[in-house]
Amino acid sequence: MKKIYIIFLLLASLGMLWSCQEDEQVVLKHPDSFVLNVPKYASGIYDLKNMETIEFTTSQPDYGFTAVANYSVEISLTEDFAKSDTLPGTYTSAKFNVQAADIALALMGLYGIVDENEFPTEPFPLYVRLISVLNSNNDGAVKSNVIMLPRVKSYFALDPMVMPEEMYIIGNVAGNWSWDGATTMIPIWGTPGKFWSIQYLGQTGDGANAEIKFNTVKEWDGNEFGFSGTAINESGTADPGASDSGGNIGIGNPGWYIVVVTTTINGREYEYAVDFFPPHVHLQGPTAGGNWDTTDEIYRFAIPDLSLGADADFVSPPFTNDGEIRASIKLPGQEWWHTEFLVFDGVFVPRGTGDDQERVSGKAGQRLYINFTEFTGKIQ
């Protein structure tokens, strides 16, 4: 009987406990704010370039129960946070460290400065507050008080602009508006951001004139450029009859051209110039009578007739001597070898930005054939 009585008491106690738990409901409070503490060394200078982190401490918002809050850090150059930015990352403890580099990057956007020379060199006040939420649904969202770090010294934190290493031509002839078939332009040795290509810009099969556009990647990413905003043929010596064709560079005078793209950097923007030159290709060195840096017409390749279309060979004059074969185009302000090329096992290989190429020899009377569309060639 004693054991039965004890079991009865235990069951009764559990029932009362369950009843009490059901009566206690968890209610989420919505506090107006919570406290972000002023850092211990706030009166000093925060030199973001020469420090790794800034430590912050806070007290958790009063949600009415113990919960894990997620804090994000928001900064502004004004106390009213009229323009602000939220730093990357969230924190779940009451003491955490914020990366100084993240603050510096956010300040670039807040200042909106693209010229490094305009960035402030003297310390300035920075305003900070926290935003607390309980989950991904932003339940319990509440902002802390605003604190001021009176003297923050930042720096121009954007990565330096670098010249593009690749450039592509697309058009109704070059690639038929498909980036998969776009032409890869050839970088010019010793001149970052400058590229060349020999292009067939004749009419399409239905008689339409050629149109072209460019980009540094093989995709429509909004950075492609054509006629608008581009310096067109200010230095070129051939007249393609260029015009604005729906934003593309329309070719009014069908033909073969050396197309050159030159990139310059202005602040945080790329600027482009597109120039057109006659499609003159020359032998150099032993097979050109021992002449170097020559543009003599005697050593100039024959230009394919437009009726043959894009898939046609440029053909050199007969080699004057036995010896190594060298060939190039010649651009103003460039050495001939900055734009030289050879053929290896049937493949057209430009020097580009690389080292001196391996040697290929030929016999007097042979010719060099180059297909600039297919990047093929032969010696025979």
UniProtKB/TrEMBL annotation:
Annotated transmembrane regions: none
Pfam families for this protein: SusE (PF14292), SusF_SusE (PF16411)
Ranges of residues in domain SusE outer membrane protein: 22-113
Chain coiled-coil ranges: none
UniProt GO MF annotations: starch binding
Gene3D superfamilies for the chain: 2.60.40.3610, 2.60.40.3620
InterPro entries, per database record: SusE, SusF/SusE-like_C
Entry GO terms, CC: outer membrane
Keyword terms: Signal
Entry protein name: Putative carbohydrate-binding module
Lineage top rank: taxon: Bacteria
Record-linked CDD domains: CBM-Eb_CBM-Fb, CBM-Ec_CBM-Fc
Position of the signal peptide: 1-24
Domain Outer membrane protein SusF/SusE-like C-terminal, residue spans: 166-263, 280-378
Organism lineage: Bacteria, Pseudomonadati, Bacteroidota, Bacteroidia, Bacteroidales
